[in-house]
Design goal:
4 helices; 32% helix; 6-stranded antiparallel sheet; 2 domains; alpha+beta
Length: 186
């Protein structure tokens, strides 16, 4: 062997990796901005729904809009599609919950509405007002068979279902006005 010392191992320096501070700043910014934006949108939606619920709870008469699907299902009021002048009012207590609904519909849709409740058009009794005056007065209805052509029927499909009193104003036979009072007792 020759007298030269063996070459010493010198570790190679890793290549210079430029730091991407701008990329780090963007990622951190997004990690903060996205949840913050979601929180703002969620809070705005929450505030809007609370105002709507407060307005509905403060109502002292019919609110002219469709009841929610949940309300229609609970009170067993399948309002037909295409109905107009839909109004509702709900009153709840510990022992009883009641919903008043009014709408105009076509004769065909009236028949379908009654069938969905387990009744039929032939069961409507002419001159029979199935909604008591005290119940009608809660929402300002005047159901006078001497001044209007009224017919009514009361439906309860089972003991667990609500009692649904229906009085139909047939004064305009092409667009009957349906008055419904549905009462459920838990």
């Amino acid at each position: 062997m020759s007298g030269t010392p063996p070459p010493q191992y010198q570790p190679r320096h890793p290549p210079h990796v430029p730091r991407r501070r701008w990329l780090t700043a963007v990622v951190v910014g997004l990690l903060i901005a996205i949840p913050a934006g979601y929180t703002v949108v969620s809070a705005e939606q929450s505030r809007d729904s609370g105002e709507h619920k407060a307005r509905a709870a403060a109502a002292r008469g019919l609110v002219y809009e469709w009841p929610s699907k949940v309300q229609r299902r609970i009170y067993d009021i399948p309002i037909p599609d295409g109905s107009t002048y839909v109004g509702h009012y709900e009153e709840n207590s510990w022992d009883r919950s009641t919903m008043w609904v009014q709408f105009r519909t076509s004769p065909e849709q009236l028949s379908r509405f009654l069938e969905d409740l387990g009744s039929q058009r032939g069961e409507l009794r002419a001159g029979d007002v199935t909604i008591p005056d005290a119940e009608a007065a809660v929402v300002g209805w005047v159901l006078d068979p001497r001044r209007r052509e009224l017919a009514g029927v009361t439906v309860q499909q089972s003991a667990k279902e609500p009692v649904v009193a229906i009085t139909v104003d047939l004064t305009k036979p092409e667009r009957p006005r349906v008055h419904v009072v549905s009462t459920t007792e838990p």
